[in-house]
Amino acid sequence: MVLRKGEHHESMTIAPVLDTDALGRLGEQLGDTDMLCGFIRRYEAMLDQRVDRLQRALSAQDHGDWMDAVLSLKTSSAMAGAQALSTLAARLQEDFAQRPPAPVHWPARERLAEIMETLRRLAAETARQLQLFVQQVAGAI
After folding, report:
1. What is the number of alpha carbons within 13 Å of residue 133 lying toward its C-beta?
2. Predicted confidence (pLDDT) per residue in 100-138, tens digit
3. Which of 73, 106, 126, 137 lies at a 20 to 30 A Cα distance from 95?
């Protein structure tokens, strides 16, 4: 669904960037605002590394590494309330799922570049919104 020719990448992100309800639930589970802020900061610090790993897997057309990397991004983003990024990762995971006996059909280089540009842009916006969320939570103490 995400990778069809002619679609604009803005259509790829229909979910809100952050799920503040999920962040609130995580805060309740952790029971401590400092722990919540620390978790969000760690997620944010590792976000570029996760996207870089996706880039390497796409460039190498390494299906196993791609699936590991996209699953890591999807689940960590869901835990951190990064709803749009988790949703996009889930769509990419489905688009690149191997369906035996058919091989994975990797898109052309320009499509790969577009995918990565979209992921990086959304990751940057996610990090920005998480930073604002942490500032608000820390300021409310």
Report:
1. 27
2. 667 777 778 888 899 899 999 999 999 999 999 999 988
3. 126
Cα radius of gyration (the chain)? 16
CATH architecture of 14-139: Up-down Bundle (1.20)
Closest to 68 (Cα-Cα) out of 89, 41, 91: 89
pTM of structure = 0.82
Contact 76, 43 (CB under 8 A): yes
Q: How many degrees, rounded to 5, is the angle at CA 47 between CA 120 and CA 44?
A: 120
Distance, CA of 141 to CA of 137 (rounded, Å): 7
Q: What pLDDT is recorded for position 116? A: 92
Taking the C-alpha atoms of residue 36 and residue 53, their distance in angstroms, rounded to an integer, is: 25
Check pLDDT > 50 for residue 11. Answer: no
Contacts of 131 (CB under 8 A, 6+ apart): 44
